[in-house]
Amino acid sequence: MTALSLRRWAYRLAISLAVGYAGYVVVLKLMRRVVGGPLGEVGEFLLVLAAVIAFAVGLFADENIRQRAARDKDAALSSAT
User: CB of 48 within 8 A of CB of 42?
Assistant: First the structure.
């Protein structure tokens, strides 16, 4: 898997998990259940943790793409001189 496709999938996963969590919280609010949802505290924590990890993977892939582009640009400049 290339860094570009990994970045896309990681960001998509992070967004879908975050939107899912937000929807879960809104549904609990509408049901007037502040505590004691079906996921429980540990489940909510793991859901948010998975979203954060997926987002971090996307950031690392972005950094890899940026560094590779800078390296290729430097190599092209040095070979041109």
Answer: no
